[in-house]
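Customer ticket, subject: "Can you confirm the structure for Transcriptional regulator, IclR family?"

Message body: Hello, I'm evaluating your service for our small team and ran a test protein. I'd like someone to confirm that this is what the system normally returns, since I don't have a reference to compare against.
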Amino acid sequence: MEAVERAFRILACFDEGELTLTLAELARRTGFYKSTILRLCVSLERYGYIVRQPDGRYRLGATVWRLGARYRQNFTAADLIRPELRRLAETIGETASFYVRDGDSRVCLYRHEPDRAIRHHIVEGARMPLTAGAASHLLLAWTEEDPRYREIRRVGHAISLGERDSDIAAIAVPVFSPDGNLRGALAISGLITRFDDARRETVLVALKESAERIGRQKTAS
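Agent reply: Thanks for trying us out. I re-ran your input and got the following:
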């Protein structure tokens, strides 16, 4: 079990944005000896979870992509959600994302980024703790019986201003299936300087319209 947990910690190092990492960077992030990492990476390479490049740097292997694709197959609403994310990103000019809860984390299942130089960049598949951010508060409000989230359920949205990142603001609304079950959180995020009161109201209206359109449609069987 200890070896398995250490291997998972090595894989988790790639969740911080970089596509490749050196042995020294892996050692720094995990706290493991380099010899331990090398030994574990042999097994991870054998099963396709990690690839060692000719320059000695490590990157995730195809097995991780395959498992991620299998994970997404559990969610059948992609054809409904992606067009709305594209519409939001192009209309609002900010990053549009769709999150689902996975245990004590939220996962960015889908996202669409605007065509502008300065934007909030999010990687599909990114996992974040449910401790901060509009999408986190929104998901907790509809999956936990907690008095702290009653106001979010009442107004039907959550707003965060500089919680996870002091430069980023976000607004999230719930997305339901036609039978009333929560599908996830639809969110818009971008530079906090672009989210004044008037802008937040515009974003909120667009988000709720998108969520309603998604909610009226059934997924393909």
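A couple of notes from the result: The domain at 2-68 is CATH 1.10.10.10 (Arc Repressor Mutant, subunit A). The mean pLDDT is 89. Feel free to reply with more questions.
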